[in-house]
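Contributing: when you submit paired examples, paste them exactly as shown. First protein:
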Amino acid sequence: MSNDDYRIVTVNVSQTVGAIPSTLQQTGVIISNGATTLAAKTPTLITSYAEFTAIANDTAATYAAVNAAMTTFFAQGNSLGIYIMEVGAVVDAGIDAVAAYMADPDVRFYTYLVPVAWDGNPKLVTLGRNNAANTSMVYFFIDTDATAAKYHYKTIKSFVPTQKSADPAICNSAAAMWQFISASPSDINKVPPMAFRYLIGVVALVAKGSVKTLLTTNYVNYVGTGAEGGISNTVYFNGMSADGNDLTYWYSVDWIQINVQMALANEIFNGSNNPINPLYYEQRGIDRLQNRAQGVFNSGVTFGLVNGNPVVGAVPFRTYVKNNPNDYKIGRYAGLSAEYTPMRGFMKIIFNVVVTMQLS
C-alpha cells in the first residue's frame, strides 16, 4: 500500500530481549609453571587431553605436575573444557603474573588450579586473601601436604586445599575442580553437595583416622572411599573451602549475585526500550524489579541452591524517596533486599539406639 491515507491500522514493534545465562561458574584455568610452549598470560582452551599434549613442553622439570593435573581433570569426563595459562617456572614471578592477569583479565575465571610447587608460598596466601571478599567469586584449588600439620589457608574463603596424592601422576585438586565447575543448574539438573562427590582416576588417602580428623578440623579436603556406605568409589571428603563452609554454600551465594544482577539489569534495559510498558522510577517500577529478583530466588529453590522460600523485600516508593530524597534525583534505588540460607548436604549423622529387654 503506497498511500498512508488508506492505512487503517499501524503496528509498532518493540523488542524484549531475554538474558543470556552466565557461564562464569563453569570456567576454570590450570596454571602452568613452564610446562607448555604457550606465550605467557595467554589463556588457551583445552577440550581434551590430546590438545594439551600438542602444546606441552615435556622436557620441562615442571611438566609432570601439569600433566598430572590435565590427566586427572579429563579422567572425570570430556563434557568440560579447561583453559591453561603459562606463567613460567619462577614461583614468585608466576604468582605475580596470575595477580596481574586477574586485575585485567582477557577471560574471567571462576576457578584457578595453581601448581603444587606454590603450596604455602606467602605471595599465594596474600593473593588468596586479596580475593576472599564475599563478592569476589574466585577460588584457588591447590594440592597441599597438610598431614605434616601445614595449614596455610585456614579461614581464607578463596582457597580450596586438598591433601595431595602419594602418586605424583595424580592431581586430586583437578578432580575436585572438575566437579565444582561441572554444575549447570536447572529444573532437572540440580546442584548436589560437593561433599562426597565421586571422583575418578584418584586414589584414597591412606592415613589414620586421627589424621583425617585433623584435616577436617583444619578445613582441608581429601580423597576417601564410600566403603562405609557399601560403595567402592573414591569420593571427595569434605567438599569445603578453607573457611570451613561447604563449597555449595559459596556456589549458591555466587549464583545469586550473578543472576540477581543480570535479571535486574535486563529488566532496566528492556524497560528503557519498551514504549508499551516502560520501566519508571515509581511504585510499579519497584514492583517489577522486586518480582524479577524474586524470580531468581524461586529458581534457586528449584535448582537446589536456596533453602526454604525466601522473600525479596522492597521499600515502598513514597517511603524510600522521603527518606532518601537525593537518590530520586540520580535514579538510585537501594531498597531491595533478601535474606536466605544456601542449600547444603549432611556431613555427620548421629543415630541413637536404646536397647531393652522388654518385649513390645
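Second protein:
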Amino acid sequence: MSNTLYPHPKFSIITVTYNAGKVLEDTIQSVVLQTYRNVEYIIVDGNSKDNTLEIVEKYRNRISQVISEPDKGLYDAMNKAINNANGDYLLFLNAGDKFHSDDTLEKIIKGVSSVHGDDFDEETWPAVLYGETDIVNDNGEFLRHRRLQAPDILSWRSFLNGMLVCHQSFYVRADIARQFHYNLRYRFSGDFDWCVRIMKDAVQKGLPLYNTRQILTDYLAEGMTTKNHRKSLFERLRIMCRHYGCMAAIRQHLWFVVRAMVKR
C-alpha cells in the first residue's frame, strides 16, 4: 500500500480470553492475516488454566501486548485493554470471532478516506466505524446474517430498538473510548451501555458515525450474552431505562417478547 493513497490510522485490536484454547487460534490468524498492517494486537487473558497461553506464545512475535492476570470479569479485562491501547481506533474481537475477510481493515480505511479526506486527523474523523455481522458455527461455517441489521444512519437512539450493531463491529476512536470505561455493575450487557455512551458523546462533539456498508465480523454463536440470554435481557432493560426512560424501555421490551413469540 502506498502512503499517498490514503491515511494509515492505527487499529488496536483487542482479544479478551479465559480458557479459550479451543477457539483462539482462528481469531489470532484472522488478525495476523490482515492486509492492513498499521495495527497493534492486544490479548488480555484472565489467567487461563488450559492451553490458551501456549497458543498465544506460538504467535507472540505478532502480538504487541499480552496481559495475563486474574480479573473481575469480561468488562474489567476490556477496561485494561482500553488503558493500554496505543492506536487511533480500537475494536474488540473476542476469542472465537474473526474478521470477515483478510482485507476488512484495508477496505474500511479506503472507504473512510474517500469521504473524509487523505489526511488522518483525529479531530475530524468519525467517532465510530460500524458495519454488519455474520453468525458462524464452531467450524467457522456461515449460519446466517445477524438478525438485527445496522441502520444506514446510526445514532444513540437507534439502540432503543435493540443492539443494532454487534459490539465486535463497532470500532471506536481511542481518544473517546478512554473517556468511557465499561461499567462493572453490568455482567452481560455492559457493551450495550458502553456503545450508547460513546454515541451520545459523538453527538456532543459533532462527530459522525460512519457506516462502512461491509460485513466486518464473523461472530461465533453462543457467546457469553447468548448463553445468559434472560439475565442479559433484564440487565439491558435497566440500561435502557437509564438512557431512554423506563416507559419507553418497558414498551420496547414488550415488543421484543411479542416479536420473539411470532417468530416461533
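If you have annotations for the second protein, write them as plain sentences, like these:
Residues 1-5 have pLDDT under 50 and may be disordered.
The first helix runs from residue 24 to 32.
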